[in-house]
Fold this protein.
Amino acid sequence: MKKVNSRRRFLKNTALATAVFTIIPRHVLGGSGFLAPSDMLTKAIIGVGGMGRNHIPYGDSKLLAICDVDRNHLAEVLQMTGSDVKAYADYREVLQRPDIDIIHIATPPHWHGIMSAEAARAGKDVWCEKPMTRTIGEGMEVVKAVQQHGRMFRLNTWFRFDDVFYGFGTTVKPIKKLVDSKLLGWPLKVTINRSTGFDWKFYWTGKTEQVPMPVPPELDYNMWLGPAPVKPYNPHRVHGTFRGYWDYDGGGLGDMGQHYLDPVQYLLDKDHTSPVSIDIDAPQQHPDAAGTWRRIELTYADGCKIILDGENSDSEAPFIEGPLGKLYPGFRSDIPNLEKRLASFPDPQPQLTSFPDSVKTRHKFALNEQNGFRSCTLVNLSIIAIRLGRSLKFDPDKLAFIDDEGANRLIHQPMRAPWTI
Amino acid sequence: MNKNKFIASIAFLLMSFFVFGQPAIPDKRTIETKIADLLAQMPATNQAYLNTLMTAMADFGEDGLVQMAGMLTPSGKGNDTGVRFAMGGFSKFVTAAGRENNRLLCQRAWCRALEAAEDPEIKAFLIALIQQVGNEDAVPFLATYLVSDQLSDPAAKALATINTPEAGNALLQSLDKAQGTERISVVEALGDMGFSSALASITPLCSSPDINLKKVALYALAKIGSPQSAKIMYNAAKESGFTFEPATATASYVLWINRVATVDKSLAGKHSTGLIKTCSAENQTQTRSAALSILVLTAGEKATPYLYSAFKSDNRTYWMAALNLSKQLQAGNKHRDGLNREVK
């Protein structure tokens, strides 16, 4: 510890003497994994065509590298970031840089699993876009890689600890306090629809007929596909509209699912488990292009239920309903004197909501690989049921469907060579 | 027949008519018409309707399904959306429990269609459907494509998903003939299956100058998890500096230790402790943590001295990882209280 303490004194004195904030990469310090609070973390962003650009100011960290398989995206972002950021076409070169602490992953979802796992194995901490992974099997591998290699992981959704929860109109904190108080009773039913404040973005559908087109020269389509099967290039398959294809994502459900479902999972105290049944009402799905759906019901073993009401058919439903009371958007309730009664109950447990703090202290972030895997599983269970066109039963401990080999074949999906996870 | 029986018979016939409806009219539609009628209703608007249509599709029989598959057109050269909806829907329908006969029917039809199709994209579509429904009967049909430039990977993935001894043997038998990217697909599929019979054939490929072939070969050996692979896995990881590089040798070595622990805990323990001692550089912390994690999982209480040693490390990342791991061991908890003041 003496070495660490003297380095901490050195850093403090240097800062006082020069009044200049210095970024000292850990590998230059020759450090032993210790980061003083004043050390700035460094990051790289993989995937800068869309959401990745929002990651530039994230996390109070210095951007050292960007990576994309589209040269135009790289050129555009370099103009935004300046000359001390290096551009790469191959993310593996980024992972090998010893001076980068955190990898931000903002590629389409079919890459999230591989990149998260490999980043962990490369000694990086990970900040990954949602959905966490395209399949349940990939999620299991990410959890194993992150935990086995002692890394920190956060998902890029935050509503369980920050921000107004979409159209509900308040943050999640008072809702969690209410749920934990048991004033609503138990079990609970949560309805996610337009009336309770949530839009399922059904415009993310794929095209069932596509004309193959030449790959534009700036795009490395083979690398863009990565682990996904080779299919003829069409611009609708990439760059934003990839969301409409099962090979890469899961339509509006894939796009918004974790934003909406992760806080609900937290509210219901289900971070450690998954539903036992998935019931659907949807039109038949195309084997390649994601379509719309009407209703998905996720039921847990204790009777708690999450209703994804895509058509807003339950427009009068409360957001949360229990045997003792209901809660509507804006925190309206049928429980008399609710706020006064709630005041006597404890606030929810505090959460670690700064990822730089998580990285420096090595304490798990509020939304990490473990609870993120479970909320992503809610999305992937729903997608599997929709694609198969039938309701399903699931074992949340074995992470396997019951009596449905067709569904089980969608849990672990082999990747296109040479990609493995 | 006497008068009473005659009246009873008429009454029975009348009752039958009203209870059971009109007597069944034989379906005299040609198969072409049946297919067209079904396609006109694609996609089904709900689950119940889908099941009705898929049940009707099963009645087309094998020849009818093959005929429908013959209506597939290459991307951009016609509109076969209805056909793809129908074939995709049927493939999913037959994989539900209790539909084994229909599943076998579906498999036979798609395998025949695969033989008949000429366009590679259509063949790839059919292979993807067979991947959903296939069993060992599909293996000979898929194996044909393991040495095909465009179709080797889809065929290999389908065989890996089927995951039977026949599938593994087909992959193994193609290994000599498959070259370049075909060979990479075959080796990876053998790895996905953890097909132990492939060990001798894959081992020499771990030193291939082709980095992708080397990568999947090491992956395959890791998934097979044989004690015989110890030296080759260790040497490849050592050459990579026990950290990340594109051939992912270290990741494969860690995976191998995980797998070999199921058959030889002592060997896994020896390699885990070896890594803990060797990986002292900061850029190897994650590998060291992984080794400690495996040791805790496989050696239980015997991992305690390594946890104690980790707690004394000045590498916060490493001793925090050890602290989390110590939750799994009673003995480790002795030191947790002492370290609480450090954990801010």
Notes: Chain B touches chain A through 79 residues (CB under 8 Å). Residues 29-75+83-92+103-133 of chain B form one domain. Confidence is low (pLDDT under 50) at residues 15-21 of chain B.
